[in-house]
Task: structure prediction
Amino acid sequence: MDFGQNRAKIYSSLLELINQKIPCSLTIVTGAFGSTPQKLGSAAIIGEAGLISGTIGGGATENTIIQCAKGNISIHQSQLFNFDLHNDISAVNASICGGGMQILLDAQPEKSISVFHEIESSNRARIPGVLITSAITLGTGTVDIKRYWITSLQ
Result:
């Protein structure tokens, strides 16, 4: 995954919020097919009051994720969502892009703080790397998330 300026900013902002102990979630587009409002890897930080930084596409899909994140932050429940964007133009409050998206909502990003520090250090040193995110769906509908940052120096 390319960690361009925008994604580097997301992880830097996320670290600041975690260090300040501000409850938040990290949402990432983990799948996209057909016509979608954002591409794979797009990310947003959502707090208890709503969107803080970034975007996962705006519109009805992002609004749904924001509402879910607000509730999930307090109970530390991460989830994986699938959205079908093939709705009819007459559908009220529905996305009509024509594709589909999968979005990971991480309601406990603080569990990956060491990985976010590694990403920030690599970005400062201009060392490219790959972020691997494992999201395993548990029987309760929640997701267990583990992250790994791998560089060519390891």
In short: DSSP finds three helices and seven strands in the chain. The first strand starts at residue 24 and ends at 33. The beta strands are 24-33, 43-47, 50-54, 79-84, 100-106, 129-137, 143-151. The radius of gyration is 16 Å.
